[in-house]
Write a structure and sequence with these properties.
alpha/beta; 8-stranded parallel β-barrel; binds 1,3-dihydroxyacetonephosphate
């Protein structure tokens, strides 16, 4: 069975000192956690190393929010996969809608990053999701299938089995408008069916699919009980230890 995975995307929040306080609080709150769900923290680059060191002796994992696809080179301002593995970073969020929207990331660029993640043994969390206009136009499922297919170009079945796909409808991010559990389930099921068509049933059954978008303690249980939802990618509510832990226990 798939182990659910709860990841906190801290986005551009927390100074190094704040990141340490937040990590310590989460660590403490999970000290006797049975580990039923996998937990991953994704702080900003400036705090990644400190957070990785703090959770080093626990079951909590660490992820980056972005990375470049080259190992090194003249790419001012970028961070490479090699730099991430060097500090103990095991996951990377790729293709978040904020990166697509504000930084012009295309499916082709995100696919290159995905390939680089696998080449460096970093587990990618590939984000996909429709806009409000696409949902209202009835294009959600066709858009999601196309976005997923483009993102998975040249990715093998074995790699897909190991990765995480995060379904994040753009209209639900940071808006307080969570998708209804049934709405989220419908799309996550379609994502799994698309993986089955692109690869095979075993790969579709293995890949973990998260939902993201205004997940909080009060709606986590409903969302996480859906058969095709294998976890949550949490933004705002991951910045307060009690809220994040409530989701993990949700
Ligand atoms: P919120 O939980 O703040 O809506 O953010 C979701 C998200 O974008 C996680 O990557």
């Amino acid at each position: 069975m798939r182990r659910q995975i709860i990841a906190g995307n801290w986005k551009m929040h927390t100074t190094r000192a704040e990141a340490i306080v937040l990590t310590e609080a989460i660590k403490q709150a999970l000290a006797s956690y049975d580990g039923e769900r996998e937990v991953v923290l994704c702080p900003p680059f400036t705090s990644l190393s400190a957070v990785a060191d703090l959770v080093g002796d626990t079951a909590i994992g660490v992820g980056a929010q972005n990375m470049h696809y080259e190992s090194a080179g003249a790419f001012t301002g970028e961070v490479s996969p090699l730099m991430l593995t060097d500090i103990g970073c095991e996951y990377v969020i790729l293709g978040h809608s904020e990166r697509r929207q504000y930084f012009g990331e295309t499916d082709a660029l995100i696919n290159k990053k995905l390939q680089a993640a696998f080449a460096n043994a970093i587990t990618p969390i590939l984000c996909i999701g429709e806009s409000l206009a696409q949902r209202e136009a009835g294009e959600t499922l066709s858009f999601i299938k196309a976005q997923l297919t483009a993102g998975l170009t040249q990715i093998t079945a074995a790699q897909v089995s190991d990765m995480v796909i995060a379904y994040e409808p753009i209209w639900a991010i940071g808006t307080g408008k969570t998708a209804m559990a049934a709405q989220a389930e419908e799309v996550c099921k379609a994502i799994r069916q698309t993986v089955a068509v692109l690869y095979d049933t075993a790969t579709a059954e293995a890949v973990r699919i998260q939902y993201g978008g205004s997940v909080k303690g009060s709606n986590a249980a409903d969302i996480l009980s859906q058969p095709n939802i294998d976890g949550a990618l949490v933004g705002g509510a991951s910045l307060k230890s009690e809220d994040f832990v409530a989701i993990i226990n949700g």
